[in-house]
Specification:
- The protein is of the alpha+beta class.
- The chain folds into 2 domains: about 130 residues, no CATH class; about 35 residues, no CATH class.
- Helices cover about 20% and strands about 35% of the residues.
- The chain contains 4 helices and 8 strands; from the N terminus they run ββββββαββααα.
- The termini are far apart.
């Protein structure tokens, strides 16, 4: 959905829309959208600057990075951006702190779908976990540790740790 900068009303433009994205559009490889992304966005033009404030909600399925179990991930995020004409990007040689939230538009239009997709991707956790205290799976038998301990933990020796302790002691 492209927004023509020249046609923005003086009072701004409010857009309430559902966006559909493919899983390949998402930065998380195993993420799947369970329903369309809902976005409430307000665009306002002041001079050449375009101020975009919005909120997006979504429901996705991620795969836990420790136990490999799918889990539901809810997104409810607000964003506040400033877009400048692409020509202004060439003028500055150095970015300052205020430039962090500034983006650039070209051809006098903004791709609102791309803005929403970017903001959605920025809400994803660096390592998806079904819970912060997920213990994952047993490296030996593959049993989910949340379903109880397996016998493998008792069988695995501390030999690698002991060898490391000996190497550290010998270097001293």
């Amino acid at each position: 959905m492209f927004i023509d900068i020249e046609k923005l009303p003086k009072e701004g433009l409010k857009v309430s829309k559902e966006f559909e994205f493919l899983s390949v559009d998402l930065v998380e490889e195993d993420a799947v959208l369970l329903e369309p992304v809902r976005a409430e966005v307000t665009l306002r033009k002041v001079g050449d600057e375009i101020f975009i404030k919005g909120r997006l909600t979504a429901r996705l399925s991620f795969t836990c990075g420790r136990c490999l179990t799918p889990y539901e991930y809810l997104v409810d995020s607000c964003f506040d951006l400033v877009y400048l004409p692409e020509e202004m990007d060439l003028v500055k040689e150095e970015l300052d702190e205020d430039d962090i939230n500034r983006m650039f538009y070209d051809n006098r239009q903004i791709d609102l779908q791309a803005v929403v997709l970017e903001q959605l991707n920025l809400t994803f956790p660096p390592k998806p976990l079904c819970s912060p205290n997920c213990e994952g799976i047993c490296a030996v038998c593959g049993k989910l540790r949340r379903h109880g301990r397996c016998d493998c933990a008792d069988k695995v020796s501390e030999a690698p740790v002991q060898k490391l302790k000996i190497q550290i002691r010998d270097k001293k």
